[in-house]
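Weekly structure sync, notes
Attendees: PL (lead), two postdocs, one rotation student
Agenda item 3: pending single-chain targets
PL asked that the sequence for the first pending target be pasted directly into the notes so everyone works from the same version. It is reproduced below exactly as submitted, 113 residues in total.
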Amino acid sequence: MVQEPSNSLSTTTSKFNSHHITTPLIDFNLKQALSISDVVISAVPNSNYKISTKDLKDGCICVNVAGEKNFESDVREKASIYVPSVGMMTIAMLQRNLLRLCEYQDMIKSAGL
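Predicted structure, written out during the meeting:
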């Protein structure tokens, strides 16, 4: 999903309207998505999984949420900011936000929006 900021006013009063334009990445593969992403967050709990530095956009921000290192060791050559790990509270808040997002999507689907 590509999300672009928009300055347009909301046409609804729904609190779920993000004021952003979202475009599904139907025809994109991971390599293409990484090449245009300003922020890459990885949370794959597998030590064999690595995001290739050559696939990243120059100057992107990379955040590793997984307990395993998901980025190659030379990630700092391309990333303007690299966060190698996060704390337990951050992980808990990410999980909470993911659950909220799922609830919001279910509410939107059931409302027919």
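Discussion points:
- The chain has a mean pLDDT of 83.
- The chain is about 25% helix and 15% strand.
Action: rotation student to compare against the earlier draft before next sync.
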